Amino acid sequence: MKFIAHHIWSVYLNDMDNFAAVSACQFVKKGSEIRLGERYERISLQELKDQIKSIDDVLITVAGKGILGKSFNSRSDAYDEDIFNNVMPNASIDDFAYQYGLAESDQIYITRKDQLTKLVEKFSNEGIEVQSVYLDNIAVSDAFGAFLDDSHVNILSKVKEGSTQNITLDGRHLEGSDIHTHAAAFEYLSSDAHWNGQMPEIIAENQEEHKYKKKFHWGLRIGVFSIFVLLVSSFFLKELLKDKVAGSHERTTRIAYLEEEIAKVKSSTQESVDLIARYGGGEQSRISFYIDRLAKKRSGDLMWNSITIFPATDKPKEDKRLDFYGNRVLIKGSTRNSNTLQKYIQKIEEYDWIAETDIEQFAYNERVGRYQFELKILI
Fold it and tell me: In angstroms, what CA-CA distances link 77 with 39, 80, 82, 103, 131?
């Protein structure tokens, strides 16, 4: 996966029997880009363990004591056993690990298999799982010989001569173990193998175990990330729906309230008209006059919920004659601003037929976000 960074540690030992100090370089591969990470010179395995994560790839290059390098006459049709017997005629091939290159296949590197197995086990005991091993200069010959152009041929000759001073690679100065750690990383990251040979079984076992460990790690991370995305998406969707439902509920509540108030106004107005028609006789033209004049002075913010002309002196009771105030008007309504009601009163008091005004009730209704009032007018 191109968006995932692969971390590779290339470790170099110049003596299989000495684990006191090793050299190591970290390489980070993301897509087609490879960059150099941390670099350590003469670091112990215990210290190196703290730098390596369980999913990092680890490869080691072993040189010096215990590694035999020999030249041989290469033939394209030669078998491994023929090549091995050519350089080790009296030895059993099953007891040895060996590598010979394909790019420059005139050199073979051999070591005892049990000794190399103990080396890899030593790394495993320190919590470092080795996925690949390179013997002596095999990675240098194959990596630089196969991938680099003619300008880098001098690197091969210098390494073979044992001189690694003043070597530069693409502008980067390499010295000491750098040439081996870089070459091993290039060889490991290549898509094809560029050497033949035989390695201890523990290497293949480590490779298989490490492959499943990485699959589990990235599968778990992707799974956790997917669950996180689903949870966050669900949360925002829930909040969005909650806001919409709350807004819809609020609108529904206000509409229901307004419809209820309108019905009350219609009922109250009709009742007043009926009562006036019944008891007021020829006063209907005067009532219309009052309603018309009082309505003209309203602002757009002031709302009437009901207007009662000549209200009853008491609540209606069964079998009891209704009496009315013949000089009184009662307005129930609402406004968003308390000043609006005061301005309305000032306007209607300009009429000479209004004797007195009195605010009997005035309170804020949070449910509808308006001030509700009852205004008494004497005429």
Answer: 41, 10, 10, 15, 29
**What is the rounded average pLDDT of the residues 244-270?**
73
Task: Using the 3D structure, point to which of 180, 199, 218 is the last residue of a domain.
Answer: 199
Q: Spell out the long-range contacts of 37-46 with Cβ–Cβ below 8 A and sequence spacing 24 or more.
A: 37/7, 39/178, 41/176, 41/177, 44/19, 44/20, 45/19, 45/122, 45/123, 45/126, 45/128, 46/126
| pLDDT bucket at 251, cuts 50 / 70 / 90 | confident
Q: What is the 3-state secondary structure (H, E, C) of 127-172?
A: CCCCCEEEECCHHHHHHHHHHCCHHHHHHHHHHHCCCCCCEEECCE
Q: Among 33-37, 149-153, 189-193, where is mean pLDDT lowest? A: 149-153
pLDDT score of 152: 45
User: pLDDT tens-digit profile of 329-366?
Assistant: 999 999 988 888 899 999 999 999 999 999 999 999 88
Please determine, for residue 372, whether its predicted confidence score (pLDDT) is greater than 70. yes
* CA separation for the pair 301, 322 (Å, rounded): 35
- pLDDT recorded at residue 151: 45
Domain boundary among the residues 199, 228, 253 is at 199
What's the distance, CA 87 to chain centroid? 58
Question: Quick check: 24 and 48 in contact, CB under 8 A?
Answer: yes
Q: Is 136 left (phi over 0), alpha (psi -120 to 50) or beta?
A: left
Q: Are 195 and 102 in contact (CB under 8 A)?
A: yes
CA nearest 200: which of 109, 69, 110, 96? 96
User: Residue 44 belongs to what domain range?
Assistant: 6-199
Confidence of residue 310 (pLDDT cuts 50, 70, 90): confident
Q: Would residue 283 count as lying in a domain?
A: yes
Phi, psi of 190 (to 5 degrees): -70, 155
| Count of domains for the chain | 2
Is 220 contained in some domain?
no
Q: Is 335 helix (H, G, I), strand (E, B) or coil?
A: strand
- What pLDDT does residue 373 have? 92
Token couple for 38: 């941390």
- Per the DSSP assignment, residues forming a β-bridge with 135 are 62
